[in-house]
Amino acid sequence: MAIELGRTGIWRMFTAVDPAFAAGVEELGYGALWLGGSPGGDLALVDELLGATERLVVVTGIVNIWQDEPASIARAYDRIVAKYPDRFLLGVGAGHREATKEYKKPYTALVEYLDGLDAAGVPVEGRLLAALGPKVVELSGARTAGAHPYLTTPDHTRATRALLGDGKLLAPEHKVVLETDPAKAREIARRGLQYYLGLSNYTSNLRKYGFTDEDLSGEGSDRFVDALALHGDVETIARGLNEHFEAGADHVTVQVLNEDPWPAYRALAEALR
């Protein structure tokens, strides 16, 4: 298996993606399209996106383990890779305690889910894990192609690479706002970040990297916003994203928070080549 993601991809909620969107992302030269929001079930959307493109890799970022059994996801995986070899990567994760009533012992549940994928024949190289904490990062390195950290900083990327070692995929997500007015940029960013301040797995992880209760309370401090949603002109944003590569990332998936994301997609496609 030789799945080539390229250096940069686009992260987008699966509800806001269609074949025309995927074709536009591919035309700009991005290597991968990451589907957020747990597009589970039979993953029919993945077929549609791959059918509308020629080279683009589609990644689920993520399939929620509480919503779909590994056997059913494995059947969808087999169907997709048979038709589109080397263009689909199955990202799975445990989601959030606050958003999932079934949530319990997430590490144990992840291990059991991976056991189920093993039994159904999904190869290690064809899957990856959403990973923040050290135990799940190590699990991602041991039993999948690698790790997909979300809502993190280059410091987290550096620590994650040290845990993963060489040879495993490290593909962090980072949010951006293409806007040179700091007040306007932070207003846009806060709308995109507010939800995550209510999720304990993210806030607990951010505290490990120097963010304080003050940073993570209310609407979030300017320090929090500036770190988690890069903003400014395209050169400033590109420099911030390149810090992930300098810290050991193989691929960075970019989530644009502007209402119209295409100006940022076009500008960053040039700046990050």
From TrEMBL:
EC number(s): the record gives 1.-.-.-
Where in this chain does the record put each Luciferase-like domain?
Answer: 21-117
The GO terms this record gives for MF are:
oxidoreductase activity
Q: Name the chain's protein.
A: LLM class F420-dependent oxidoreductase
Q: Which UniProt keywords apply?
A: Oxidoreductase
Its top-level enzyme class, in one word, is: oxidoreductase
